[in-house]
Structures are given as C-alpha cells and as structure tokens.
Design a protein that fits this description.
heterodimer, A: 277 residues, alpha/beta, 33% helix, globular, B: 571 residues, mainly alpha
Chain lengths: 277, 571
C-alpha cells in the first residue's frame, strides 16, 4: 500500500488501426504528485489517461496503477481498481435528466453491490456524504436540481464531486476545462487543484492552459504525436519551453509565431487558443 | 437527361421541359405503380361505384335502424368495458416487462454479443409479424375462452413495437454518462440502472402510453374471437339484429377509448413535457387534453423550489413536480393492480400457461403450404387489394379534413379546432368495430371490410396531412402572397408542392398499416386472408394455419420494406 509510485507506465504503445496514438510512452508518477500533461489535441493525452483505468487496452507495454497490473487485470480486479481512481471528463458525462445529487451518488457505485435508480435507492449515510462533497464544490443548494439545468462550470464541479465520492487515491482529469469559458476554467481548475492538495491526492491532468499548469503543477509532461517530448519539474520552467510542446512543425520557431502556426493547422479549437493569452 | 446540361444549343421548348431529376423519377414511378395497383385492386375485390353507393345506402339504412341507441343492461356493459380496459392494461404491462430485456439485448450498445443481438432483433420482428388478433385465436384454442388469451396475445405482439422503440431509444443514449459509471467501478447492471435507464425513461413512458392506446382499441375486438371483453357482446347484439343495442355498446367503447386517451395524453404532457418522444415514424399526437395539461404542467414547474430540503434526512423535497410524478406512479400502480385483479390474470397463471402455449405452438410445425395453396394466394391478393383500395379511398376522403385541420391553411382558428376535434373523435372507433358494423350492413365479403378500413384510415391520414402541411417552410408562401395571389393560388403554388413528398410518405405509411389490418378483417367477415386463417384454426388445420401466418408475415414484411425504401428515396 505504501508504494511511493502510484502510476507506472513502461513502453506503452497504442495503435488504432493505422494511426499510432501512443508511441513507447514511459512515465512514473509518485504518490502525492500533481502532474500535468500538455499537448495538442490528438497528441495522445486522453488515450494515455484512459489506459490508466482500463477504459482502453494497450497494444504493447506495461501499465501498473496502485499496484494493479491494468493490462492483465480481470473484470473484477479492474472494477476494484476503478473504485480507487477518480476520473473527471472533458464533457462532464453527467446524466442530464438525473438530479445533481444522484450524479454525485453514482460515484459510490463501485462500493455498492446492486443496481440503483433514484436518490432514495442509496443509503442515507451516502446521501449525506454526497451533500458534503457538493458543499465542498459550492453546490450544496443545487442537490435536487436536474443537472442539465446547471451551467458548464457548475456541471464540471458536479463531475469533481462525483469523483470525490469515490474517495479516490488517484485522480485522472481529461482536459477538465476545455469546454468552458476562460473565467469558469480558472475557477474550476483552482478548485480541483486545491482539493487535491488538501486531500494529498495524486493527480494526472491533461490541460491546455500553460499558465494554470505552471501555477499549480509539480511536474509538466509534454506529449506530441504520442511521444513524451518534455518531462520536468514545473518549478523554474520557462513558459516558452512549455509552449514549445504545442508546436507542430518546427521546434526551432520563435514563440511569437507559434500561435499562428497552431491556428492555421486548425487542430486546436478557437476557445483553447484564446485561453493561452 | 442531366439537369446541368449546357443550355446553349437547345431550343427554347427543349429548355422548358421539366428535367427528370431523381425525385421526379421516384415520384412518377410511385404514381404509376399505385394507379395500376389501384385499378387491379378495384377489379379484384369487384368494387364498383354501384357497390360503393349501394353499400353506403345499406350502411345508412343500418344506421337508421341503430337509432336511437339503447343501453340494455348498462351496468353489465360498463363492467365489460372495464374488463376490456383491464385486459389492455395487463397485456401492455406484460409487454413492457418482456420488452425491457429484449430491448437491452437488441440495442447495439448494450447487447452482450452478436448472437444475443440478432436473437433479440429476431424476436422483435417475429412478434410484430403475427397480428394480435391471430395470436388471440391461437391462444383461445390452447387455453380456452377467457381474458387470459387476450392478455397474452396483446403482451406478445406488442413486444414487436415496444421492444423496437425501446432498443432505438437505448441506442441513442449519451455514451459519456456510461463511461463515467464504468470509471467509478460500476458493473453492467449498475450501468443500465444509473446511466442508461434515466436517459431513456421519457421515451419508455411515451412509447408505453402510446401502445396502451393502440392495445385498448385491439382489446375491444378480441371478444369476437373469444378472448374476453366487450367485443363478444357487440357481435352478439349485431348477430341477433338488435342494432340499437349494438350502437349503445359502440358508444360505451367510444367513451372508454376517449377517456383513456385523455388520461394518457395528460400523463404524457406532465411526465415528458416538451421532450421529444421516440415514436419515430409515428408522429406525436396532440390532443385537446394535451394542450390543456401541457399548460398546467408548465405552471407547476414554475413553482419548484428545489433548494429547500432537509439536510439531515437528505430526501428529495416534495416539489409540485415530484408530487405530480408520484401521484401518477401511485395511480398507475393502482390501475395495474386493479387490472390484474379484474382480468383475473395473475403472473402465476400467465407463467402456468406457458407449457400450454408451447404445446399449441408445436402443433403448427411443419407448415403445410400445398393443401390450400390456391386459396392462400387468392386470399393474400384479395387482402392486398383491400388495403390498396381502402387507402386510396381513405386518402381522398381525408383531403378536405387534412387541409382544414392544418393551422396554416384553415380559414379560421375555430375551423381548425373543429376539424381537429372531429378527427380525434373519428379515430376513436377501432377499424375492426367499424368492420363488424359494415359487414352487418352490406353482408360478408371484401366490400364491407374495405369501406370500414377506408373510413378508419380517414382520421389518421387527415391528421398526418395536417401535420405535413404545418411543417412547410412559410418563406415561399410569403413570396407567393407578395405577388398578389388569391388564397387558393397560395395553397396550390406554395404549400402543396412543398408538402407533397411528406404526403406521399404518409400515404405509403398508411398503405402499410392498412394491408396489415386487412389481414385480420376476414375474422369478422370482412374479406381477405383472415377468413381462411380463422377457418383453418377452427377446423384444427394448424399446419395450414401456420402456412397462412408465414405468408402474411412474408407479404407484410416485404411491403413494409418496400414502402420504407420509397419513403427514404423521397426524403
């Protein structure tokens, strides 16, 4: 249990048909570290995160999370691993028609044995616990509101509360603010990082906001075309060096021209480009 | 001829010729084939204007003898009406219970493997293929006269529609929510309960209520084949020539159907609100009750205050919305419990009937196509002919009502409401009930059946036409008005051309429905293959009966595929 390395990835390769999504990725994340993945859309960040809780299976390589060999894990082992790994999605992935509280409660499904439908099908102690998590993300009053009536930033906070409901040891976040406006993005990221630090959670989070990443993260890992191109301590890291990860064509180009290159390539959405400045 | 051919060397007259676009080819093909089919059908069932007028005279004569209606032994008739309702409710509930696992396995995203997927899809197609009335005849053979055969017939046949629409709804869910449940370590059943079920619930409710409306219409006729309910009483009244008593029974049936429709549209409005239902090909029906209750539903939603809840107990607050939902849930369960009691069809009996049903089914294999071969072919052709003639007549009759019921065509608001109300009432009488009456008026044979189907489809066709017209883009119409056109010119130049593809689509859908209905008309003496089937069952010729059922399945399935293909071409 006291293994200092929470995530161990060695020589991970993933191919979808002819495209190589991950190319020989090796990465160790020690306990309590806030590690941010930077990289263009399509550079393999989401794919990497989805290998860590077994939502994807690798073509080759080793993936070990919290001492479990994810590649060889059987169905039940995988479920008990997922119970300890929280996941925050880019598109929130809430059930829009269900209440906020029920969405948070679904984070406890791994701990429960039977199918549940409706808030009252969960024990009262869990309902109280869920309210506690909701209050922590500032949405205590909204417990019984339909979740599709919330704004994007609020929905992502519900997503965070759901992940906390799992009482996770590791938190994976896949571009948690990519669908939000700059202001809510900053709020949600601050909230997420503060909670993780308070709870001493190990975090692996993919992001586009270099400034936010440098402000909170312990370590920055850059991916390009499925390969690790940057891996170093966030302290003292020059923003320009981090931005270089986003460069597609020529690593030697000066920073000032880089945003232009990215926009012209049309790979990054306008909202993401806007949040850099 | 290419549309974009260079115009230079062509003469003016050549350039003024309408080009043969793909849509025009399909449209012309449809018109030519349908005209030919209509002429052939008209001859096949020996229909003529003489027969039509004579038949109309006979029906008028019969109606005269029906008036004034007499309510003999009204409490008993009402009891029978409620028994009929109970049969429809239990049958629909049975179908829902059976459809849920079938639908989960028949949805591409929740099925276990290829084998379960194709098996479940096969079950759905099969259930749809055999008409409920025919299933009822078979079950009455196996289980004896009573309500139980009716419940089983409705329950099994409805899987065809409910299972299909449930599966379609499941395939449309947002997969993200399911991924989230998987990521928390949830299992397969937890995924279904927490991520899939909440998303499909509104469409499940909509589909189930819609099917209940359909099944109630069916159950009023099942008594004719001995499957319990009010149908037997109606046929008895007509057979003993007490037509006024018959009309009394028809009025009770009609009142029951309207009552259930009002309740179900109220439920639809308050539980589903403005969310779209997945009735796919079948358009959502708007009734007066719908309009009234939709408005009330919105008012209730406005008063919700969800922030006031007990933080110690953490129970959902009793908002108005929750009160309404709970009331409907309790009401539904109460109706279901009463229905099970009234129909005397408890789950134990249903399960106990399974071996009997299986024994009955085994008598149907192998099918015998040879003994009654020419009869089967002749009967099937007559069935198709009845469907074609009835659809054409029904569509012609529907034109004025369809236009008057369209919001954007009706000369005044009250005209539209009057036309819509008339159509709701007109559709209230099930086709087979009409057929029973018409056969009593004009005698056995296809003429009575055809007239009944034509009248029965008038309401649906007019409703579909009105919807088609209302969906037309108003822009071009404005342009025509701006040229100083009269109201008639406006309609002819802007509305009709735009609505035409949907009209043809609705017509083909109706043809599909009518040929399906025509296969069972024979059971009440209205011509077609149903009579042959009914006789084969009565004389215990199960091998021939199954040959007939297979033939019906093949023809109905082929026509459905064909009309689906043509509709897709027009889109």
């Amino acid at each position: 249990m006291s293994d200092p390395v929470v995530v161990r990835v060695e020589g991970l390769t993933k191919r979808f048909g002819a495209t190589v999504a991950l190319d020989d990725v090796t990465l160790d994340v020690p306990s309590g570290q806030l590690c941010v993945l930077l990289g263009l859309s399509g550079s393999g960040k989401s794919t990497l995160l989805r290998h860590l809780n077994g939502l994807h299976r690798p073509t080759a390589g080793l993936v070990q999370v919290l001492g479990t060999d994810v590649v060889r894990a059987r169905r039940l082992q995988l479920r008990s691993l997922r119970r300890e790994v929280g996941f925050v999605f880019q598109q929130f992935n809430l059930v829009g028609r269900s209440t906020v509280l029920e969405n948070v409660l679904s984070g406890a499904l791994g701990r429960l044995r039977f199918p549940r439908f409706g808030v009252l099908s969960y024990p009262q102690s869990l309902r109280r616990e869920a309210l506690g998590h909701l209050e922590r993300v500032g949405l205590g009053d909204r417990a019984f509101q339909r979740s599709d009536t919330l704004s994007g930033g609020q929905q992502q906070r519900v997503g965070i509360a759901r992940a906390l409901m799992q009482q996770p040891r590791l938190l994976l976040a896949d571009e948690p603010v990519a669908s939000l406006d700059p202001e809510s993005s900053a709020q949600v990221m601050d909230l997420l990082f503060r909670i993780c630090i308070e709870d001493r959670l190990t975090v692996l989070c993919s992001l586009h906001q270099v400034e936010l990443a440098l402000g909170w993260a312990h370590r920055i890992v850059g991916l390009r075309d499925g390969r690790v191109v940057l891996d170093r301590d966030a302290r003292g890291l020059d923003p320009a060096e981090a931005m270089a990860v986003y460069q597609r064509v020529d690593p030697a180009l000066p920073i000032a021209e880089q945003t232009g290159v990215v926009e012209a390539s049309g790979v990054v959405e306008a909202s993401e480009v806007g949040t850099w400045r | 001829m290419a549309v974009s051919a260079p115009p230079a060397p062509q003469s003016t007259s050549a350039r003024l010729r309408v080009p043969w676009t793909r849509a025009r080819v399909v449209m012309t093909g449809v018109v030519v084939v349908l005209t030919a089919a209509f002429v052939w059908s008209w001859r096949t069932i020996e229909f003529g204007f003489g027969e039509l007028l004579g038949g109309a005279g006979d029906v008028a004569n019969l109606l005269g003898r029906m008036l004034p209606p007499r309510f003999v032994d009204l409490p008993y008739i009402i009891e029978l009406a409620f028994l009929t309702l109970a049969m429809a409710v239990v049958g629909t509930a049975l179908a829902i219970v059976l459809s849920i696992p079938v639908a989960v396995l028949a949805a591409r995203n929740t099925t276990l493997n290829r084998a379960t997927y194709y098996t479940a899809r096969g079950v759905i197609v099969l259930a749809r293929a055999v008409p409920d009335v025919i299933l009822a005849v078979i079950f009455v053979r196996g289980l004896g006269i009573g309500v139980l055969p009716g419940v089983l017939a409705i329950g099994l046949h409805s899987i065809g529609m409910i299972g299909k629409l449930f599966a379609d709804a499941i395939e449309q869910v947002d997969e993200g929510a399911r991924e989230a449940v998987a990521a928390t370590g949830g299992g397969r059943l937890q995924d279904l309960a927490s991520a899939v079920f909440p998303q499909v619930l509104p469409s499940f409710i909509g589909t189930s209520l819609y099917r209940l409306d359909i099944n109630l219409r069916t159950s009023t006729i099942l008594g004719v084949v001995g499957a319990g309910g009010i149908g037997f009483e109606l046929q008895d009244a007509l057979r003993s020539l007490s037509y006024d008593r018959g009309l009394g029974i028809v009025i009770v049936i009609f009142a029951l159907i309207l009552l259930v429709e009002l309740v179900s549209s109220a439920m639809r409005a308050s539980l589903i609100g403005n969310e779209s239902t997945v009735l796919g090909a079948v358009k959502r029906r708007r009734t007066m009750g719908d309009l009234l209750l939709a408005r009330r539903g919105q008012r209730i939603r406005g008063r919700d205050d969800v922030t006031a809840f007990d933080r110690a107990a953490m129970r959902p607050p009793w908002t108005r919305r929750r009160i309404v939902r709970t009331a409907y849930l309790v009401g539904t369960l109460a109706v279901l419990a009463w229905s099970v009691w009234a129909a005397d069809a408890n789950p134990v009996d249903i399960a106990g009937a399974l071996p009997d049903m299986w024994r009955t089914f085994t008598q149907f294999v192998p099918p015998d196509f040879t003994t009654a071969r020419s009869d089967i072919i002749e009967g099937m052709l007559e069935t198709v002919a009845i469907g074609v003639v009835a659809t054409v007549l029904g569509a012609l009759l529907a034109v004025p009502f369809g236009f008057l019921a369209a919001r954007n065509v009706a000369p005044a608001r009250w005209v539209m409401y009057a036309a819509r109300t008339f159509l709701v009432f007109e559709r209230g009488i099930p086709e087979l009930i009409l057929a029973v009456i018409f056969v009593a008026a004009v005698g056995l044979g296809p003429v009575g059946g055809t007239m009944a189907l034509a009248l029965g489809s008038l309401g649906l066709m007019a409703k579909l036409m009105a919807d088609n017209l209302e969906e037309v883009d108003p822009g071009p119409r404005e342009a025509v008005v701006a040229t100083g056109a009269t109201r008639g010119q406006e309609t002819a130049a802007s509305l009709v051309p735009q609505a035409m593809p949907s009209f043809v689509g609705s017509f083909l859908y109706l043809l599909d429905v009518n040929i399906r209905s025509a296969t069972i008309l024979g059971i009440v003496g209205g011509g077609g293959i149903g009579f042959l089937l009914f006789n084969a069952l009565r004389t215990l010729n199960f091998a021939t009966a199954s040959a007939i059922v297979i033939t019906i399945f093949a023809v109905v399935y082929a026509i459905e595929q064909l009309s689906g293909w043509v509709r897709a071409q027009l889109r």
